[in-house]
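pipeline: protein-struct stage 2 | run 1193 | Ubiquinol oxidase polypeptide II
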Amino acid sequence: MTSRSPILRRSRRLFALAAPGLLGGCNMVVMNPTGDIAMQERNLILIALAMMLLVIIPVMALTIIFAWRYRKGRAPETYDPTFDHSTRIEVVVWSIPLLIIFCLGVITWITTHTLDPFRPLDRIAPGRPIPPGTEPLDIQVVAMDWKWLFIYPKQGIATVNELDLPVDVPVRFSITSTSQMNTFYAPTLAGMIYAMPGMQSMLHAVLNKPGDSWGYSGNYTGRGFSDMRFQLHGVDRAGFDRWVAQVKASPNALSTGSYLTLEKPSEKAPVMHFSSVSTNLFYQALNRCVAPGSVCTADIMRKDRALDADHGGPFAIDGAPSSPATMSMGAPTNATPAAAVTPEQRDAGLPARGPAKPGTTTAISLPVPGAPRAARI
Protein backbone atom coordinates (compact mmCIF):
# COMPACT_ATOMS: atom_id res chain seq x y z
CA MET A 1 0.00 0.00 0.00
CA THR A 2 2.91 2.31 0.80
CA SER A 3 4.52 1.75 -2.61
CA ARG A 4 1.36 2.77 -4.37
CA SER A 5 0.85 5.96 -2.40
CA PRO A 6 3.29 8.10 -4.46
CA ILE A 7 1.60 6.89 -7.66
CA LEU A 8 -1.81 7.80 -6.30
CA ARG A 9 -0.56 11.22 -5.24
CA ARG A 10 0.95 11.91 -8.66
CA SER A 11 -2.26 10.73 -10.35
CA ARG A 12 -4.31 13.10 -8.26
CA ARG A 13 -2.04 16.01 -9.11
CA LEU A 14 -2.22 15.20 -12.83
CA PHE A 15 -6.00 14.97 -12.62
CA ALA A 16 -6.19 18.32 -10.82
CA LEU A 17 -4.06 19.91 -13.54
CA ALA A 18 -6.01 18.29 -16.37
CA ALA A 19 -9.49 19.04 -14.97
CA PRO A 20 -9.62 22.69 -16.16
CA GLY A 21 -8.63 21.62 -19.66
CA LEU A 22 -11.25 18.90 -19.72
CA LEU A 23 -13.95 21.27 -18.46
CA GLY A 24 -12.87 23.87 -21.00
CA GLY A 25 -14.51 21.79 -23.72
CA CYS A 26 -17.92 22.07 -22.06
CA ASN A 27 -20.39 24.45 -23.66
CA MET A 28 -22.79 25.86 -21.08
CA VAL A 29 -25.48 26.64 -23.64
CA VAL A 30 -27.85 28.05 -21.03
CA MET A 31 -25.23 30.67 -20.22
CA ASN A 32 -24.51 31.34 -23.92
CA PRO A 33 -27.92 32.12 -25.43
CA THR A 34 -28.46 33.24 -29.02
CA GLY A 35 -32.07 34.36 -28.61
CA ASP A 36 -33.57 37.31 -26.74
CA ILE A 37 -35.90 35.18 -24.57
CA ALA A 38 -33.05 32.86 -23.58
CA MET A 39 -30.91 35.94 -22.87
CA GLN A 40 -33.51 37.36 -20.49
CA GLU A 41 -33.82 34.00 -18.75
CA ARG A 42 -30.03 33.77 -18.43
CA ASN A 43 -29.98 37.25 -16.89
CA LEU A 44 -32.73 36.23 -14.47
CA ILE A 45 -30.62 33.27 -13.33
CA LEU A 46 -27.60 35.53 -12.77
CA ILE A 47 -29.67 38.11 -10.87
CA ALA A 48 -31.13 35.43 -8.58
CA LEU A 49 -27.66 33.96 -8.06
CA ALA A 50 -26.19 37.36 -7.17
CA MET A 51 -28.95 38.05 -4.66
CA MET A 52 -28.45 34.68 -3.02
CA LEU A 53 -24.70 35.32 -2.80
CA LEU A 54 -25.50 38.47 -0.84
CA VAL A 55 -26.47 36.13 1.97
CA ILE A 56 -24.18 33.16 1.35
CA ILE A 57 -20.87 35.07 1.12
CA PRO A 58 -21.31 37.08 4.37
CA VAL A 59 -22.48 33.95 6.21
CA MET A 60 -19.46 31.95 5.06
CA ALA A 61 -17.11 34.83 5.92
CA LEU A 62 -18.65 35.36 9.35
CA THR A 63 -18.39 31.63 10.06
CA ILE A 64 -14.61 31.84 9.63
CA ILE A 65 -14.36 35.13 11.54
CA PHE A 66 -16.37 33.87 14.51
CA ALA A 67 -14.43 30.60 14.63
CA TRP A 68 -11.15 32.54 14.74
CA ARG A 69 -12.23 35.30 17.10
CA TYR A 70 -13.91 33.07 19.64
CA ARG A 71 -11.53 30.14 19.41
CA LYS A 72 -10.60 28.19 22.54
CA GLY A 73 -7.86 29.72 24.62
CA ARG A 74 -8.42 33.30 23.48
CA ALA A 75 -9.55 35.55 26.32
CA PRO A 76 -12.54 37.69 25.30
CA GLU A 77 -12.03 41.44 25.45
CA THR A 78 -15.45 42.00 26.95
CA TYR A 79 -17.88 39.60 28.55
CA ASP A 80 -21.49 40.44 29.44
CA PRO A 81 -23.32 37.53 31.10
CA THR A 82 -26.60 39.49 31.07
CA PHE A 83 -26.66 40.07 27.30
CA ASP A 84 -29.87 38.79 25.65
CA HIS A 85 -30.82 41.30 22.95
CA SER A 86 -29.32 43.67 20.37
CA THR A 87 -31.52 45.91 18.26
CA ARG A 88 -28.79 46.42 15.70
CA ILE A 89 -28.30 42.69 15.25
CA GLU A 90 -32.05 42.13 14.93
CA VAL A 91 -32.34 44.85 12.29
CA VAL A 92 -29.52 43.38 10.22
CA VAL A 93 -30.70 39.78 10.62
CA TRP A 94 -34.26 40.56 9.52
CA SER A 95 -33.96 43.51 7.15
CA ILE A 96 -31.51 41.96 4.68
CA PRO A 97 -33.56 38.76 4.03
CA LEU A 98 -36.76 40.80 3.79
CA LEU A 99 -35.19 43.15 1.23
CA ILE A 100 -33.92 40.21 -0.80
CA ILE A 101 -37.32 38.51 -0.73
CA PHE A 102 -38.99 41.77 -1.74
CA CYS A 103 -36.61 42.28 -4.67
CA LEU A 104 -37.00 38.69 -5.82
CA GLY A 105 -40.78 39.05 -5.59
CA VAL A 106 -40.78 42.17 -7.78
CA ILE A 107 -38.46 40.56 -10.31
CA THR A 108 -40.55 37.38 -10.36
CA TRP A 109 -43.76 39.35 -10.87
CA ILE A 110 -42.34 41.33 -13.78
CA THR A 111 -40.63 38.43 -15.55
CA THR A 112 -43.62 36.13 -15.08
CA HIS A 113 -45.55 38.45 -17.38
CA THR A 114 -42.81 39.59 -19.74
CA LEU A 115 -41.56 36.01 -20.31
CA ASP A 116 -45.00 34.43 -20.59
CA PRO A 117 -44.60 31.96 -23.50
CA PHE A 118 -48.10 32.81 -24.77
CA ARG A 119 -47.32 36.54 -24.87
CA PRO A 120 -46.40 37.84 -28.35
CA LEU A 121 -42.97 39.44 -28.55
CA ASP A 122 -42.65 43.22 -28.45
CA ARG A 123 -38.96 43.34 -29.32
CA ILE A 124 -36.35 41.48 -31.32
CA ALA A 125 -33.51 42.40 -28.97
CA PRO A 126 -32.83 45.10 -26.36
CA GLY A 127 -33.44 48.46 -27.99
CA ARG A 128 -34.85 46.85 -31.15
CA PRO A 129 -38.66 46.83 -31.17
CA ILE A 130 -40.49 44.69 -33.70
CA PRO A 131 -41.40 46.78 -36.75
CA PRO A 132 -45.15 47.37 -37.16
CA GLY A 133 -46.83 44.87 -39.43
CA THR A 134 -44.21 42.15 -38.91
CA GLU A 135 -45.74 38.70 -39.22
CA PRO A 136 -44.23 35.95 -37.04
CA LEU A 137 -43.02 32.71 -38.55
CA ASP A 138 -45.53 29.99 -37.60
CA ILE A 139 -44.13 26.57 -36.73
CA GLN A 140 -46.21 23.65 -35.52
CA VAL A 141 -44.37 21.18 -33.31
CA VAL A 142 -45.44 17.58 -32.65
CA ALA A 143 -43.51 15.54 -30.09
CA MET A 144 -43.45 11.88 -31.10
CA ASP A 145 -41.80 8.70 -29.79
CA TRP A 146 -38.88 9.50 -30.06
CA LYS A 147 -38.53 12.30 -32.56
CA TRP A 148 -39.66 15.86 -33.28
CA LEU A 149 -41.90 16.85 -36.19
CA PHE A 150 -41.83 20.49 -37.33
CA ILE A 151 -44.49 21.76 -39.71
CA TYR A 152 -44.10 25.12 -41.47
CA PRO A 153 -47.73 25.81 -42.53
CA LYS A 154 -47.07 28.97 -44.55
CA GLN A 155 -44.15 27.38 -46.38
CA GLY A 156 -46.06 24.11 -46.84
CA ILE A 157 -43.13 21.95 -45.68
CA ALA A 158 -42.24 19.74 -42.73
CA THR A 159 -39.09 18.30 -41.20
CA VAL A 160 -38.13 15.71 -38.63
CA ASN A 161 -35.40 16.50 -36.09
CA GLU A 162 -34.32 19.67 -37.88
CA LEU A 163 -35.43 23.21 -37.08
CA ASP A 164 -34.20 26.10 -39.22
CA LEU A 165 -34.98 29.65 -38.09
CA PRO A 166 -34.22 32.97 -39.77
CA VAL A 167 -32.31 35.39 -37.57
CA ASP A 168 -34.20 38.39 -36.12
CA VAL A 169 -37.61 37.03 -37.19
CA PRO A 170 -40.25 36.46 -34.46
CA VAL A 171 -41.32 32.82 -34.27
CA ARG A 172 -44.64 31.50 -32.95
CA PHE A 173 -44.57 27.83 -31.97
CA SER A 174 -47.74 25.76 -31.53
CA ILE A 175 -46.79 22.62 -29.61
CA THR A 176 -48.52 19.32 -28.94
CA SER A 177 -47.63 15.66 -28.44
CA THR A 178 -48.87 12.35 -29.80
CA SER A 179 -48.84 10.02 -26.81
CA GLN A 180 -46.66 11.21 -23.92
CA MET A 181 -45.98 14.36 -21.98
CA ASN A 182 -42.78 15.93 -23.30
CA THR A 183 -40.94 19.21 -22.91
CA PHE A 184 -39.80 21.16 -25.94
CA TYR A 185 -36.45 22.68 -25.01
CA ALA A 186 -34.00 24.64 -27.13
CA PRO A 187 -31.63 26.13 -24.51
CA THR A 188 -30.12 28.81 -26.76
CA LEU A 189 -33.58 29.92 -27.97
CA ALA A 190 -35.96 29.88 -24.98
CA GLY A 191 -37.01 27.88 -21.94
CA MET A 192 -38.80 24.55 -21.60
CA ILE A 193 -42.41 24.28 -22.75
CA TYR A 194 -44.64 21.30 -22.06
CA ALA A 195 -45.92 19.28 -25.01
CA MET A 196 -49.05 17.34 -24.00
CA PRO A 197 -51.34 14.98 -25.95
CA GLY A 198 -54.63 16.57 -26.89
CA MET A 199 -53.48 20.01 -25.72
CA GLN A 200 -51.73 22.91 -27.39
CA SER A 201 -48.94 24.92 -25.81
CA MET A 202 -47.44 28.01 -27.35
CA LEU A 203 -44.07 29.69 -27.38
CA HIS A 204 -43.01 33.04 -28.81
CA ALA A 205 -39.28 33.42 -29.36
CA VAL A 206 -36.65 34.93 -31.64
CA LEU A 207 -33.12 33.97 -32.64
CA ASN A 208 -30.62 36.82 -32.79
CA LYS A 209 -27.41 35.12 -33.88
CA PRO A 210 -26.68 32.63 -36.64
CA GLY A 211 -25.23 29.32 -35.60
CA ASP A 212 -25.94 25.68 -34.89
CA SER A 213 -27.09 24.14 -31.62
CA TRP A 214 -29.32 21.37 -30.32
CA GLY A 215 -32.76 21.03 -28.80
CA TYR A 216 -34.22 18.08 -26.98
CA SER A 217 -36.93 16.75 -24.70
CA GLY A 218 -36.41 17.53 -21.03
CA ASN A 219 -38.99 14.99 -19.85
CA TYR A 220 -38.16 11.28 -19.64
CA THR A 221 -40.39 9.32 -22.00
CA GLY A 222 -38.89 5.86 -22.25
CA ARG A 223 -36.28 3.87 -24.13
CA GLY A 224 -35.50 6.36 -26.91
CA PHE A 225 -35.50 9.48 -24.73
CA SER A 226 -31.72 10.01 -24.81
CA ASP A 227 -31.70 10.36 -28.61
CA MET A 228 -34.82 12.53 -28.86
CA ARG A 229 -32.90 15.54 -30.13
CA PHE A 230 -33.23 17.99 -33.01
CA GLN A 231 -30.79 20.24 -34.80
CA LEU A 232 -31.37 23.98 -34.47
CA HIS A 233 -29.90 26.13 -37.23
CA GLY A 234 -29.95 29.91 -37.17
CA VAL A 235 -29.52 31.41 -40.65
CA ASP A 236 -30.06 34.73 -42.38
CA ARG A 237 -33.18 35.36 -44.42
CA ALA A 238 -31.56 34.39 -47.71
CA GLY A 239 -30.20 31.21 -46.15
CA PHE A 240 -33.66 30.35 -44.82
CA ASP A 241 -35.22 30.81 -48.26
CA ARG A 242 -32.57 28.51 -49.76
CA TRP A 243 -33.26 25.92 -47.08
CA VAL A 244 -37.02 26.07 -47.76
CA ALA A 245 -36.34 25.55 -51.48
CA GLN A 246 -34.12 22.59 -50.63
CA VAL A 247 -36.86 20.99 -48.51
CA LYS A 248 -39.44 21.63 -51.25
CA ALA A 249 -37.23 19.66 -53.63
CA SER A 250 -37.60 16.55 -51.48
CA PRO A 251 -39.61 13.72 -53.10
CA ASN A 252 -41.32 12.91 -49.78
CA ALA A 253 -44.78 14.21 -48.87
CA LEU A 254 -46.27 14.20 -45.38
CA SER A 255 -49.69 12.68 -45.96
CA THR A 256 -51.90 11.19 -43.26
CA GLY A 257 -50.56 7.76 -44.15
CA SER A 258 -46.92 8.79 -43.86
CA TYR A 259 -47.74 10.61 -40.62
CA LEU A 260 -49.20 7.45 -39.11
CA THR A 261 -46.05 5.58 -40.11
CA LEU A 262 -43.87 8.32 -38.67
CA GLU A 263 -45.89 8.31 -35.45
CA LYS A 264 -44.80 4.76 -34.62
CA PRO A 265 -42.06 4.63 -31.94
CA SER A 266 -38.54 4.68 -33.36
CA GLU A 267 -35.11 5.47 -31.97
CA LYS A 268 -32.32 7.62 -33.41
CA ALA A 269 -34.54 8.91 -36.19
CA PRO A 270 -32.55 10.68 -38.93
CA VAL A 271 -33.33 14.12 -40.31
CA MET A 272 -36.23 13.94 -42.77
CA HIS A 273 -37.66 16.50 -45.20
CA PHE A 274 -41.20 16.66 -46.57
CA SER A 275 -41.99 18.91 -49.52
CA SER A 276 -45.71 19.07 -48.78
CA VAL A 277 -48.02 18.56 -45.81
CA SER A 278 -51.56 17.24 -45.65
CA THR A 279 -54.16 19.92 -44.97
CA ASN A 280 -55.03 20.45 -41.29
CA LEU A 281 -52.57 17.77 -40.22
CA PHE A 282 -51.58 19.59 -37.03
CA TYR A 283 -55.25 20.10 -36.11
CA GLN A 284 -55.84 16.38 -36.58
CA ALA A 285 -52.75 15.51 -34.54
CA LEU A 286 -53.88 17.88 -31.81
CA ASN A 287 -57.38 16.38 -31.74
CA ARG A 288 -56.09 12.83 -32.14
CA CYS A 289 -57.98 12.05 -35.32
CA VAL A 290 -55.33 11.52 -38.00
CA ALA A 291 -56.31 7.87 -38.57
CA PRO A 292 -59.12 7.49 -41.13
CA GLY A 293 -62.49 7.03 -39.49
CA SER A 294 -61.44 8.42 -36.11
CA VAL A 295 -63.44 11.22 -34.54
CA CYS A 296 -61.70 14.41 -33.43
CA THR A 297 -61.88 15.20 -29.73
CA ALA A 298 -63.21 18.67 -30.57
CA ASP A 299 -66.18 17.05 -32.35
CA ILE A 300 -66.76 14.71 -29.42
CA MET A 301 -66.76 17.62 -26.99
CA ARG A 302 -69.10 19.63 -29.19
CA LYS A 303 -71.56 16.72 -29.34
CA ASP A 304 -71.30 16.17 -25.60
CA ARG A 305 -72.07 19.83 -24.98
CA ALA A 306 -75.02 19.72 -27.30
CA LEU A 307 -76.31 16.58 -25.56
CA ASP A 308 -75.77 18.20 -22.18
CA ALA A 309 -77.73 21.22 -23.36
CA ASP A 310 -80.66 19.00 -24.39
CA HIS A 311 -80.80 17.60 -20.86
CA GLY A 312 -80.32 20.92 -19.09
CA GLY A 313 -76.92 19.94 -17.70
CA PRO A 314 -74.51 22.39 -16.04
CA PHE A 315 -72.17 22.36 -19.05
CA ALA A 316 -74.78 23.48 -21.52
CA ILE A 317 -73.74 25.96 -24.15
CA ASP A 318 -76.95 27.92 -23.80
CA GLY A 319 -78.66 28.90 -20.56
CA ALA A 320 -80.60 26.03 -18.97
CA PRO A 321 -83.28 26.07 -16.27
CA SER A 322 -81.66 26.21 -12.87
CA SER A 323 -81.85 23.30 -10.49
CA PRO A 324 -80.10 22.33 -7.24
CA ALA A 325 -77.49 20.42 -9.24
CA THR A 326 -76.79 23.25 -11.63
CA MET A 327 -76.84 25.87 -8.91
CA SER A 328 -73.99 24.06 -7.18
CA MET A 329 -71.86 24.28 -10.34
CA GLY A 330 -72.35 27.94 -11.14
CA ALA A 331 -73.82 31.22 -10.00
CA PRO A 332 -77.30 32.39 -11.05
CA THR A 333 -77.34 35.47 -13.19
CA ASN A 334 -80.00 38.01 -14.04
CA ALA A 335 -77.94 39.65 -16.75
CA THR A 336 -78.66 39.09 -20.42
CA PRO A 337 -75.32 39.34 -22.21
CA ALA A 338 -75.13 39.43 -25.96
CA ALA A 339 -74.22 36.21 -27.74
CA ALA A 340 -70.52 35.88 -28.43
CA VAL A 341 -68.09 33.30 -29.70
CA THR A 342 -65.02 32.71 -27.55
CA PRO A 343 -61.67 31.90 -29.20
CA GLU A 344 -61.92 28.35 -27.85
CA GLN A 345 -65.37 27.89 -29.37
CA ARG A 346 -64.22 29.32 -32.68
CA ASP A 347 -61.22 26.97 -32.84
CA ALA A 348 -63.38 23.95 -32.07
CA GLY A 349 -66.28 24.99 -34.29
CA LEU A 350 -68.68 25.50 -31.36
CA PRO A 351 -71.77 27.71 -31.68
CA ALA A 352 -72.06 31.05 -29.93
CA ARG A 353 -73.11 31.15 -26.31
CA GLY A 354 -76.66 32.38 -26.29
CA PRO A 355 -77.97 35.07 -23.92
CA ALA A 356 -78.74 33.78 -20.45
CA LYS A 357 -82.26 34.04 -19.13
CA PRO A 358 -83.06 35.48 -15.72
CA GLY A 359 -82.78 32.85 -13.02
CA THR A 360 -80.57 30.52 -15.04
CA THR A 361 -77.11 29.24 -14.31
CA THR A 362 -74.06 30.67 -16.01
CA ALA A 363 -72.61 28.00 -18.28
CA ILE A 364 -69.19 26.59 -17.47
CA SER A 365 -66.77 26.14 -20.35
CA LEU A 366 -64.95 22.85 -20.66
CA PRO A 367 -61.32 22.98 -21.84
CA VAL A 368 -61.03 22.56 -25.58
CA PRO A 369 -57.90 21.00 -27.12
CA GLY A 370 -55.63 23.85 -27.97
CA ALA A 371 -56.84 26.05 -25.14
CA PRO A 372 -54.81 25.07 -22.05
CA ARG A 373 -51.77 27.16 -21.28
CA ALA A 374 -48.46 25.65 -20.28
CA ALA A 375 -46.04 27.55 -18.10
CA ARG A 376 -42.45 28.17 -19.02
CA ILE A 377 -40.11 26.14 -16.83
